[in-house]
Structures are given as structure tokens and as C-alpha cells.
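Per-residue structure
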Amino acid sequence: MAGDDTRPARLMAKPSWLISETSRHAHRLLTEKLASVNSRGYHYRLLAALEEFGPDSQARLGRHTGMDRSDVVAAVNELADRGFAERSPDPADGRRNVITITPAGLAQLERLDSVLTDVQGELLAPLSPAEREQLARLLTRVLEHHADD
């Protein structure tokens, strides 16, 4: 996009288009960087939720992360296979599993945090630290306004 003057000025003046294009670039960078450490965004979401909220059911993890139930199951399977999470029967309801982050999962979350920090740096390179904070505040306000949509 930088230096590309082939787009109509009318389009370039639309924040929704700019957010969409920035999101496309962010998603590409994040997907590439996570793949380089044999991981995916779903892994990060689940590990972060487990670290923040503690052991939880797959259904609640889906709600915490905004993931579809089938995506939660597949990603939890991948995390469990790699030793980053453990699945055990819920003592209150044997039909349900409780997912717990392991020490290896906490270490992986730290590695993934580092990857995300690198992605943020690359994506937001033209902005000063103060501008990055301002952007985060503004985007947070927009998201909070639409939280119930």
C-alpha cells in the first residue's frame, strides 16, 4: 500500500477500508510468523485464555476466545498432542472435559508472545510508541462500542 497511488482517494479516505487492509496485512504477518514456530492463532488464543482464566471446559474456552466449538476441539487436540495442554474429565460433569495448560504450554505461550511482539513491531513500524498506544485506545473504543453486535 505504501507509495501506491493507484487506489481512488475516496477509498483511501474510508477508515473501514483502511482497517480492513491493515487487518489483512496483520493476518498475513501473524500467520507466517506463527507457522515459522509450528503454531497457529488458535493455539495462542487458547493458551492465553487458559493462562488467564485457568482450567476450563472446551465450551467456555470457545466463548472466551470467540472460536467455534469444532475449532476449539481441533486446536485443543493439537495442543494436547504437543504436551501444551491436558484434558481431563470434569468432576462435576463426566460428559465434559476440563482443559488445563501445562508448564510446557506456559513456555510455549511465552514464545508465542514474543512472536506477536515481533509482528506488532513489523506491522506498526511507521508509528511512534505514543501513536501505537493511541491507535490501540481508539480501536478498543470502536470494538467496545460494537461488543454487543
